[in-house]
Amino acid sequence: MEFTQKSSNKIIKKSFWVKCYRQRYRFLMLLPMFITICVFTYRPVMFWVIAFTDYKIGKNIFSGEWVGLRFFREFFRDSADAFNVFKITLSFNITSLILGTFSAMAFAILINEIKNRKTRRFVQSASILPFFVSWVITYSLCRAFFATGSGLLNTFLMNAGIIDRGINILGDPKYTFGLLIGTSLWKGLGYSAVIYLATIAGIDQEQYEAANIDGAGRWARIRYITIPSLIGTMAVLLVLTSGSLLSSNFDMFYIFSNPTNQIATEVFDMYVYRFGLKLGRYSYATAVGMFKTVTSLTMILICNSIYRKITDRTIF
Hints:
The structure is a single chain. This protein has helices spanning 2-22, 24-42, 70-78, 81-112, 117-128, 135-146, 152-159, 173-201, 205-213, 218-242, 250-256, 268-278, 282-311; strands at residues 53-54, 65-66. By secondary structure, it is an all-alpha fold. The chain has 2 domains: 2-46, no CATH class; 79-311, Orthogonal Bundle (MetI-like fold), CATH 1.10.3720. A two-stranded antiparallel sheet has the order 1-2. Helix 12 (268-278) runs antiparallel to helix 13 (282-311).
């Protein structure tokens, strides 16, 4: 009996290596990406050690004085920054996640309802284009529209006699949140809708044909066929995105941040950048960044567990 089990184990191991050998060219194709991920994603994790030491620039990362959790305590207990950073980061990311998810799904449904194929392709291509526009150019466009003195919007409102002087949309903190949310949706709407369009394309057309025979209108078909078919995709995307609730688009916040609206753009990434690179407090910035990463990983594991309990399926 034991001999038979050992023989079967050897056969399984042999078949595994045989399959790996047959797929060797695919593994070679994946090798550059694997090396890139190891070098730029996993290798920097070893530098987390400076979050527990008093690191000085120019010295070995292991030569600093061991301080334990001092910088973590400073962030949560000794400074008043933790609550403000959490509030700004979560409020922006949660709002962006909710609006982005439902607007992308609605936009995909609207595109799918366009009957003319050329028009549908044009709208889809035009909506994806902003995703590939750099944030520098995006800010230049926003400045052309919203600049206080020479912006198109302020110029129109002043010439129309609606306002006496220009509104500082790019600098006033009370406008920053809406401006960033709107800009983020504008850039990512078309790109995010592609996933839902792919899901819609995979829906069995016989369901729509049966609905037409039963006299269902366009809205009824969307409500009872299209939307339920998109719920699974939406749930998966929400679970995958849950790990990014503490991570923000650094390029966007860096470009749109200025001394007058800094209080409204102090998300985790900007906070780490300010203390790490601008103020030179590398250990403190590393501690904050480490906390953000570990918390994000925990959040995505919790969301995946909840998804598994609800649907009896799991993403990973």
